[in-house]
Amino acid sequence: MKVAVGVHIIADLYGVDSELISSADGISPIIESAIKEGNLTEISSQYYQFRPMGASGIALLAESHLSFHTWPEHGLVTLDIYTCGEHSNADRAFNYLLNVLHPTSIEYKKLERGSKIEENVKIENPQMML
Questions:
Q1: What are 41-88's pLDDT values in tens digits?
Q2: Active-site annotation holder among 8, 22, 28, 84
Q3: Which of 21, 51, 113, 119 allows an S-S link to 6, with CB 3.0 to 4.6 Å?
Q4: Which of the residues 45, 64, 65, 105 is marked catalytic?
């Protein structure tokens, strides 16, 4: 039986209120709350403020990471949520962000990571994969 070791959500959120995402000080509490809502374990976080507006950030999690970039002038937030362990934790964090940021549309992919682990896949020449 194959069991993925992690889940990776990659998302673009469109139509987000620019006031919510213009500053690192504004969006960082939202990210921190999403981590708590997802029952994830934060090790550390770093946020960066762009001038005149926009922010980027990453939270290192015991389960992996959550990162974001904002473009307030386009109402865009890009997210990357990767967790191992309980897969529903990533979903809870993602759904929290959707509920708070209220995008008018989203594009996202949810990938299972490490799903071939039981097959003992060996790559003879890793350079051939690039």
A1: 999 999 999 999 999 999 999 999 999 999 999 999 999 999 997 889
A2: 84
A3: 113
A4: 64
Residue 53, CA distances (Å) to 39, 72, 74, 80, 123 in order: 30, 7, 11, 20, 44
What's 6-129's CATH class?
alpha beta
Q: What is the pTM of this model?
A: 0.86
Burial, 77: exposed, middle or buried (Cβ in 10 Å; 0-12, 13-18, 19+)? buried
Q: Write down the catalytic residue from 45, 56, 67, 69.
A: 69
Q: Is 64 a catalytic residue?
A: yes
Q: Is 102 a catalytic residue?
A: no
Amino acid making up residue 117: I
Neighbours of 118 (CB within 10 A): 10
Q: Is 69 a catalytic residue?
A: yes
